[in-house]
Give the backbone structure.
Amino acid sequence: MIEVRFNAIKINGQPINGTLNSMSFKDAKDKIHRLVDKNQLKLISIEKKSAYLYKIRKGTDKPITGEQKAFSKEEVATALRKLGYTVISVNRKWFDFNLKPPTQDIVSFVKISAELLDQKLPFSEILTLMINDVENKTLRETLKQINNEMKKGTDSQAVFMRYESVFGKFTAYMLGLASKSGNMAEIYKATAKFLERQQEFKKNLRSALITPFVTIFILFLAVLFYVGYIFPETAKLFVKFNIDLPPMTKATLLISDFLMNNFIIIIILMIAPPIALVYWAKTKQGRLFVDKWQMKIPVIGSLIHKTAIEVFCRVFYTLYSGSAESIEPIRIASEACGNAYFESQIKNVALPLMVKRGMGITESFEASGVFTDTALSRFHSGEETGTIKNTALQLANYYESETVYRLKNIIEMVQVFIAMIIMVVMIGLTLVSAETATISPKSPMSQ
């Protein structure tokens, strides 16, 4: 997220300026040009807030250095002189890389903040403490800016949403909402719980999928090297002396010749489809398709589906305050689940049925087609008894327990499966090598 300032003149000659935040400088310029055209303004300049490195001295003290964000070099120098400093130099920081903080740092910030809020510590003091202790530069600078803006009385939700590129859309929304609510500590706790579950699930999913894929890929490369290079060097010696090859050795040599003769084509066929799939999955339609079908993958798909429902229910429980205000919590909860298809079905099917046709939560959720029968049954009971908020929490806890237990079993099963594949491949290579070792040249008498 970047901040941009523009200067313009009205038709009557009155100067006007303003600032806006955007995800990119190009997007900011487009917004400003639309604003200028709409209000018939004459645009003078567009300035992007950048980082400046300064060196200053106070009296005869030792010079000190620092960094400050501003719209211009003169703005930094003027502000420092007003504070009584002698400005030695102010230079723009040309290489200002602000990578997104690790998820663990954001989880720690939210979790510690929740604990301190429980102890009735003012939020401004919590931010000051965290600014001094946070090691990640991007997160530290972000907290500084949030603290400064909130001290000026800026709306907390607008402030946090300005930094959604740092926190993530859902986290920024929840933290901004917490500052305006009467149960700030509870919302921070729920957000920390959500982030921890999301991080844990991704970690376990990587163990269940990525590690086996990497293992199989390396095994494939090793077999390819053996079949394509090492084995032919031995087998072709026998061919050179017109020695008959046994069946497995002969078949392996044919495979080797095929691989070496079509090496480039095989590499392209192996690399091109995954790259194309990754790029297509980044498009809106591609992500919808991938997120829809990943929930139908055998074994793993069920876990992904139930985890999405768990996250939805946990966020819905945190935000829901009554049937009269259920639309916004449902919308935010659908965005938090991290599945584009799940979110699309809730927003484009369930919510329109609730708003336009006045359908209940259970009927709308059923029409969306993304909830399990168990979840629909529990929501139906909760809707009838007026305990839908607690029902959402019960469902979240139930699916959390189920997915954690099943994922551990799947990881163990996958590890056994990979071990079996490695064993089969090694046995195959051993048999081929053993068969090759039995080959003996024809005696001169037989020739």
Summary: The radius of gyration is 31 Å. Residues 184-240 form the longest helix (57 residues).
